[in-house]
Amino acid sequence: MSRSFPLAGLLRLRQLREDEAAGALSAANERLRSSRSHAETVTEALGATELNPSEVASLYAVAAARASARSVLADLHALEAHLQQEQDRAQERYRAARAETLALEKLEDRHRQGEAAAELDAEQRALDELASTGWTRRADKDRP
Question: What is the pLDDT of residues 26-50, one digit of tens each?
């Protein structure tokens, strides 16, 4: 009968932490993608406006709209930089959690291999004992 892995509870906790870190990384990646997409949309909209105002008031309105759009774009780039930092931190937390889990998984694999080897050894000893007993009985039977 094999023993269970003594650090199974800790391994499960580490796996849960890894799953949590993976979820946080996924959310950070999604926020970053969304921010980049929004910034691209604003950039395209800013570049696509080709107005030729004929009056001064129209020129001022176009200039104000472009300035506002540039301000929004600058804010979006600042947000993107912040989200990139969050994504980097989430990536590092995931890597650390994965490394901790991987170390325990390797220990668990070694434990399983040791248990399997011990079971095979016990089985081989039992077979050897049976063979030895059978050989001794036949040898005793063949003696006059």
Answer: 999 999 999 999 989 888 877 776 6
Compute the distance between CA of residue 11 and CA of residue 17 in angstroms, rounded to an integer: 10
Task: Please give the C-alpha separations between residue 4 and each of 8, 22, 101, 103, 108, in angstroms, as whole numbers.
Answer: 8, 27, 18, 17, 9
**Helices in the chain by DSSP H: which ranges?**
8-48, 56-142
Query: Could you tell me if 39 and 77 are in contact, meaning their C-beta atoms sit under 8 angstroms apart?
Result: yes
**pLDDT 10s digits, 101-144:** 999 999 999 999 999 999 999 999 999 888 888 777 777 777 66
As a whole number of angstroms, the distance between CA 31 and CA 107 comes to: 36
Establish how many alpha carbons lie within 13 A of residue 62's alpha carbon, considering only the half-sphere containing its beta carbon.
13
Q: Crossing angle for the helix pair 8-48 and 56-142, nearest 10 degrees?
A: 150
Residues 6+ apart with CB under 8 A from 8: 108
